[in-house]
Amino acid sequence: MKKLTLLAAIIGLGLSANLSAKEDQSSIIERIKPYGSVCVQGKECAVKVPVAAGAPAPGAAPRSGEQIYTAVCAGCHGAGVMGAPKYGTADWAPRKAKGKATLYEHAIKGFNSMPAKGGCAACSDEEIKNGVDYMVQ
Ligand code: HEC
C-alpha cells in the first residue's frame, strides 16, 4: 500500500512538473495537429498538395479544359509519360482521327495505360471532355 502511494506521488509530481513547464501553447498545437489536411480547390489552403485535383465545390461550374489539363492531365500529357500523346505536338494527329466520341470515351473510361479520367475520380465527365477538347484543339 505504501508503495502504491509513493508511486502515485511520483506520478503526480511528474504530471505537475509537466503542467507547470512553460510550454508555448502554439508549439503544443503544432505538435498535436492532424498529420494531413484537406484542401478545397478555389479556397486558401495552407498545405499545397501537388496533385490537387479534388472535387469541385458543390454547385460550382464545371472546370475549364485548361484547368483540368493543368490539374490532372499535364502530369502525363505534358511530358509524354508512358507514351501519352504530348500536349501541343503532332502526337495528337492519329488520335484525332479516331473521332472525338472515341477520345471522350477513352479519357473517361480509360485506354491501355491511360487511366480512367486520368485518375481524377472526382472530375465530372463534362470536365474530362473539356480536358480532351483542350488537348485536341
Ligand atoms: C497517368 C498518366 C496519364 C494521365 C494523368 C492522363 N493520361 Fe491520357 N493518356 C495516357 C497514356 C499513357 C495514353 C496513351 C494510351 C495508349 O495510346 O495506349 C493516353 C491517351 C489519352 C488519350 C487518347 C486516347 C486514344 O484513344 O487515343 C486521351 C483523349 C487522353 N489520354 C485524355 C486524357 C485527359 C483528358 C486527361 C486528364 C483528365 C488524361 N488523359 C490524363 C496517360 C495519362
UniProtKB/TrEMBL annotation:
<dbReference type="GO" id="GO:0005506">
    <property type="term" value="F:iron ion binding"/>
</dbReference>
<keyword id="KW-0732">Signal</keyword>
<keyword id="KW-0408">Iron</keyword>
<feature type="domain" description="Cytochrome c">
    <location>
        <begin position="60"/>
        <end position="137"/>
    </location>
</feature>
<keyword id="KW-0479">Metal-binding</keyword>
<protein>
    <submittedName>
        <fullName>Cytochrome c5</fullName>
    </submittedName>
</protein>
<keyword id="KW-0249">Electron transport</keyword>
<dbReference type="InterPro" id="IPR009056">
    <property type="entry name" value="Cyt_c-like_dom"/>
</dbReference>
<dbReference type="Pfam" id="PF13442">
    <property type="entry name" value="Cytochrome_CBB3"/>
</dbReference>
<feature type="signal peptide">
    <location>
        <begin position="1"/>
        <end position="21"/>
    </location>
</feature>
<dbReference type="GO" id="GO:0020037">
    <property type="term" value="F:heme binding"/>
</dbReference>
<dbReference type="InterPro" id="IPR002323">
    <property type="entry name" value="Cyt_CIE"/>
</dbReference>
<keyword id="KW-0813">Transport</keyword>
<dbReference type="GO" id="GO:0009055">
    <property type="term" value="F:electron transfer activity"/>
</dbReference>
<keyword id="KW-0349">Heme</keyword>
<dbReference type="InterPro" id="IPR036909">
    <property type="entry name" value="Cyt_c-like_dom_sf"/>
</dbReference>
